[in-house]
């Protein structure tokens, strides 16, 4: 049940591993229905509600049809969602490949320009081209990962031989799974755009990726994640030629950028970011910004949105740093209660921006949470796709299932392995995203058995689990040593008492009722509302709000 504390209305939801097609919203006087779940008979319920027995029977039958009384099935095992494609779909993408290949040969443009169909099965590979960076950001998880890898031989830059092997190995994996698919190659670091030899390796990587992917009948898209300090005309001409997307790491407002993302000599990088944005807009590059939220900027999200709007962008990624997967004593993670309120203000501000200025502005992760609510939740098996649809490659060719946490527990293979495809198809359940079974069926986990007397608030008890999905597996493993204890957006997710994830639950609950109250006109304005769960009043002809 999801309850609106302001009005007393409530919504009943069935916690199953499928999206909800309809939200049933009830008025406060309908709370007698909750006694059905305590085993009260229809006759007794009719007396409590002072309604006819046949009317109560109709209600019970409706709830039963919508599976509210269905027993949760036994664990079904890992999802195969990412692993294979039917013959019919394979043939469809083979035909698409032939059509796009003919255009490519006729036009002579790089192969990465073609195959933009969003339905093509995609493998996301984060390629760490270098461990070098010209900034010294206080919370860098890449630097922490290299400390984790200190027992291995880690080249500073990924050798071209390793890059070539990586491209061929993942093309083979995609062909094995889907016949024809797409490689989404994320060029990462360190700072992958550093001038000098590394910059030439970046150019060579894009060219070679186009050649290898086309030879292997695999579509290609590339993204560069950059700190923006090396942006110049030469780089952006290259980006435009290959149709590469750019993610600019910038901590807004820019005064915070200077404090947190500074050069090794302590000088801030805000001026370089201003110049980078100017050039990106000049060359009409498709770019987005990613802001790390700390205590320094937790209360300035609307200010960051206004700046984002001023540079012509329609979205901002504002992701909270944490001291679990990114341990640090210098930069403090945001306060859970404060950030929850700021996210709510930001999402409502986005709606007002559209109403008053007809300007669409989305803020991640809020728009992602809203999308899950609008679509009825139930997407546990998708997750981030770690270990299956998303992997990370270190400079020595080591493949891990998470680009943030490259530890031995998440090591999958090496691109030089002769049985690379077999290893990648044998990823253990522990190395993948959460599934519904992981979070709902918790009886056989030794870590949970040790915590049995600590009154831990588990995901199986949570009324917004269908929307949250359990959070980040890597953070769960770092914090608790198991993926069966999920986590929300905020630091309170790592507490062990009944208040665990309190702010995440508050955020989802408030956004849920905000969504319920949006007019159909408002819903139609936003692209992520195009598929939304129906909202129904209770079983009587009465308004949703009494």
Your description of this structure?
- With 546 residues, the protein is α/β, with parallel strands linked by helices.
- Among the domains are: 2-71 and 518-536, no CATH class; 87-226 and 385-428, no CATH class; 434-500, no CATH class.
- It is built from 19 helices and 14 strands.
- Helix 1 crosses helix 2 (53-65) and helix 11 packs parallel to helix 18.
- Residues 71-83 and 527-546 have low confidence and may be disordered.
What is this structure's SSE topology?
Elements: E1 2-3, E2 10-12, E3 22-26, H1 42-49, H2 53-65, H3 87-107, E4 122-128, H4 141-148, H5 160-178, E5 182-188, H6 197-215, E6 219-226, H7 233-242, E7 245-249, H8 254-260, H9 270-282, E8 287-293, H10 301-310, E9 315-320, H11 336-357, E10 362-364, H12 366-374, E11 390-393, E12 398-400, E13 411-414, H13 420-424, H14 436-440, H15 446-450, H16 465-468, H17 473-480, H18 502-517, H19 520-525, E14 534-536
Parallel strand pairs: 3-14, 4-5, 4-11, 5-6, 6-7, 7-8, 8-9, 9-10
Antiparallel strand pairs: 1-2, 2-3, 11-12, 12-13
């Amino acid at each position: 049940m999801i309850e609106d504390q302001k009005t007393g209305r409530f919504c009943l939801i069935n916690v199953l591993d499928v999206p909800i097609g309809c939200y049933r919203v009830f008025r406060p006087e309908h709370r007698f229905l909750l006694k059905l779940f305590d085993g009260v008979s229809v006759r007794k319920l009719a007396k409590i509600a002072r309604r006819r027995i046949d009317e109560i029977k109709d209600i019970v039958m409706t709830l039963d049809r919508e599976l509210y009384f269905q027993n949760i099935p036994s664990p079904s095992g890992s999802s195969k969602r990412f692993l294979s494609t039917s013959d019919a779909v394979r043939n469809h993408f083979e035909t698409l490949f032939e059509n796009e290949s003919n255009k490519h040969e006729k036009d002579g443009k790089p192969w990465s320009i073609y195959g933009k169909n969003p339905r093509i099965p995609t493998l996301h590979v984060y390629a760490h081209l270098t461990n070098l960076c010209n900034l010294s950001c206080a919370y860098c998880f890449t630097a922490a990962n290299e400390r984790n890898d200190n027992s291995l031989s880690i080249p500073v830059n990924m050798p071209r031989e390793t890059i070539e092997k990586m491209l061929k190995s993942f093309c083979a994996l995609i062909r094995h799974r889907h016949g024809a698919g797409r490689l989404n190659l994320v060029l990462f670091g360190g700072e992958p755009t550093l001038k000098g030899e590394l910059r030439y390796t970046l150019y060579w990587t894009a060219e070679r990726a186009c050649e290898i992917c086309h030879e292997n009948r695999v579509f290609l898209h590339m993204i560069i994640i950059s700190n923006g300090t090396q942006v110049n005309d030469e780089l952006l001409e290259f980006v435009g030629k290959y149709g590469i997307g750019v993610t600019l790491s910038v901590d807004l407002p820019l005064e915070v950028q200077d404090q947190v993302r500074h050069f090794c000599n302590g000088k801030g990088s805000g001026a370089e970011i201003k110049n980078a944005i100017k050039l990106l807009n000049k060359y009409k590059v498709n770019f987005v910004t990613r802001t790390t939220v700390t205590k320094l900027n937790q209360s300035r999200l609307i200010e960051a949105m206004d700046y984002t709007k001023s540079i012509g962008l329609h979205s901002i990624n504002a992701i909270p740093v944490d001291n679990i997967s990114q341990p640090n004593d210098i930069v403090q993670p945001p306060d859970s209660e404060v950030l929850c309120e700021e996210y709510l203000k930001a999402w409502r501000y986005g709606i007002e921006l559209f109403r008053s200025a007809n300007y669409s502005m989305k803020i991640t992760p809020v728009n992602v949470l809203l999308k899950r609510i609008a679509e009825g939740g139930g997407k546990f098996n998708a997750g981030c796709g770690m270990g299956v649809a998303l992997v990370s490659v270190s400079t020595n060719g080591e493949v891990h299932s998470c680009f943030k946490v490259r530890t031995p527990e998440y090591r999958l293979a090496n691109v030089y392995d002769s049985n690379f495809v077999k290893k990648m198809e044998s990823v253990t359940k522990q190395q993948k995203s959460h599934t519904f079974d992981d979070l709902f069926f918790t009886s056989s986990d030794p870590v949970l058995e040790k915590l049995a007397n600590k009154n831990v608030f588990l995901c199986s008890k949570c009324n917004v689990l269908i929307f949250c999905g359990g959070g980040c597996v890597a953070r769960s493993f770092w914090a608790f040593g198991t993926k069966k204890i999920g986590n929300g957006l905020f630091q309170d997710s790592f507490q062990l008492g009944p208040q665990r994830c309190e702010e995440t639950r508050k955020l989802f609950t408030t956004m849920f009722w905000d969504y319920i109250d949006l007019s159909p006109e408002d819903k139609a304005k936003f692209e992520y509302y195009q598929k939304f769960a129906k909202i129904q009043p209770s079983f009587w002809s009465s308004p949703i709000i009494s």
